[in-house]
Amino acid sequence: MKNILLIINIVLICLVGYLYYLHFNEQKKPDLHSSSSEAMKEYGTTTAASKVAYIDLDSLQNNYTYYKKIKADFERKQSAANEEIGGMQKKYQARATQLQQKGPTMNQQEQESAMQEINKMQQDLQSRKQEIDNDLYNYNSKMKEDILTRIQNFLKDYNKDGKYSYIFSYEPGFMFYKDSTLNITPDVIKGLNTLYSSENKK
């Protein structure tokens, strides 16, 4: 009986100690709500002043006259490059087939000469293909840089009153939600086309 009372007393002492610990530990915890409120008060003005807008890139590409022009120029350049490489490949294959058919009648010196000719044609083809690929890549990079610079310069003037803190580009799949009231794409397209039209009149 004494042992049971002793065990009960020990359990009660442990429970009291635990409750005591909880009571004082709770007082030491920071008030997250209070901290958040104070932080909001401190930075609330900045947050309220910040405003964002976005530009729909697909719509811009489909309606910006200058972009459509240089895209068409690039596609013509790419098509011409493909035709040139295709012509070189056909010429190489035709000559290789011709020399292969004549192979059995060639002596060793003629065979070596034919191999050198084929190897040179192959090297010329690869070298020209690499040169064309580099030209297309550089042209495409300059095109993108030019477009980006034009958009950035326009937006600096468009937002000279500081109405927007951020202007983002929107691509399908990039954002899960967008507020259409923040869409300034029509204004940007109209402004860019007006600038491009005025450039052509000079």
Short description:
This protein has 202 residues and is mainly alpha-helical.
Would you mind describing this structure in some detail?
- The chain has 202 residues and is mainly α.
- The chain folds into two domains: 1-31; 52-201.
- It has six helices and two strands.
- A two-stranded parallel ribbon has the order 1-2.
- Helix 3 (57-63) packs parallel to helix 6 (185-201) and helix 4 packs antiparallel against helix 5 (108-158).
- It is elongated.
- The model is unreliable at 1-9, 18-23 and 26-48 (pLDDT under 50).
End-to-end CA span: 110 Å
**% residues in beta strands:** under 5%
Query: Which sheet architecture does the biggest sheet show?
Result: 2 strands, parallel
Using the alpha-carbon principal axes, give the shape.
elongated
Report the oligomer: single chain
Describe the strand arrangement of the main beta sheet, using strand numbers. Answer: 1-2
Give the low-confidence spans.
1-9, 18-23, 26-48
Tell me roughly what share of residues is in helical segments.
over 70%
The SSE string, one letter per element, is: HHEHHHEH
Q: What is the count of structural domains?
A: 2
DSSP strand tally: 2
Radius of gyration: 37 Å
Number of helices: 6
Integer average pLDDT: 80
Structural class: mainly alpha
Which secondary structure elements does this structure contain, and how are they paired or packed?
Blueprint lengths: L1 H27 L3 H18 L2 E5 H7 L1 H38 L5 H51 L7 E5 L14 H17 L1
Helix pairs in contact: 3-6, 4-5
